[in-house]
Amino acid sequence: PPRLCSRLYALNKDASPIVSNHFFLALYDQYWRVPGSSLSLAVDTVRRFLRADRGNISKAKKRLEETLKWRIDVQPQTKMCSTCLNEDLRSHYMQHVGWDKRGRALVYSDIGMARDKGHKSNVEHCIQVLELMEPILPPFPNDQYIWVVDFHKFSISDMNPKMAIACLKLFGRSYPERLGQMILVGAPRIFNGFFRAVSPFADPVTVKKVRFIKGPDGKGGGKKFDLVVNEFFDAETKAWLVAEMMENRLRWKDLARRKSWLAALITADGTRHGWWEQNTKRKSKFNSEAEE
Fold first, then answer.
1. How many CB atoms lie within 10 A of CB 144?
2. How confident is the model at residue 225 (pLDDT cuts 50, 70, 90)?
3. How far apart are CA 65 and CA 203, in angstroms?
4. How much is the pLDDT for 11?
5. PANTHER family recorded for this chain (predicted)?
6. Which of 49, 93, 96, 237 could hold 233 in an S-S bridge, CB 3.0 to 4.6 Å?
7. What is the DSSP-derived secondary structure letter of residue 170?
8. Does domain 88-291 have CATH number 2.60.40.3760?
């Protein structure tokens, strides 16, 4: 119907001025029903894929087809981090923690606080975080996240190219235009060469969104901490980030043994650590170690 066509075209104008009404409708008509499943695509999803490829229909179509196949095969919306839930709640330290000045989601992760270095399990946890954020992201143009990665305690054992490439490809292929910025805090020089080596295997648009900054303690390469953090976050969020990072640095030996984001979420208390030390009724791998 003409009214629907005009509405779809109006929605599409933000995607790219070079995408015609005809091509947008053709792409949307083809993919609004996901082949082989009961899923359907929102107009905003098609528009986002077009925006990711700057209005290039063939590229957007390829990216969309790859993502649909991946979602049907993997069912990411059902994924939970089995390593954290079944083995040790301290396995990963990656969580949605707040919002930036524009209302975009803030994800924070600390490499030094994560115990698990496995490629597949880290990707699984990353998918869980991304999927949990999808329903709560605000409308375009703020339907993105700012990802802050603290390189505190980074070592050679963390330089897993498979994991780095897999995560970067996730952002580019399956969650295009979701990553607003990835801010790497306090990354050592040894990581710079590693990042240059894996960058060619990732979406170039995603790679351009990565920024290096010094840590709150002044260590690492890149721009000054305050300069970049003030650009994205208000005073309260910045104060939380600084407190979190400095606490993990100064009390790492103690906190790495007890601190867990998932444990804090389970107990509905964002400040409590080592909850399994008090929860004597439940026995598993992670509290047997704490009791030793």
1. 22
2. very high
3. 16
4. 39
5. GH16843P
6. 237
7. I
8. no
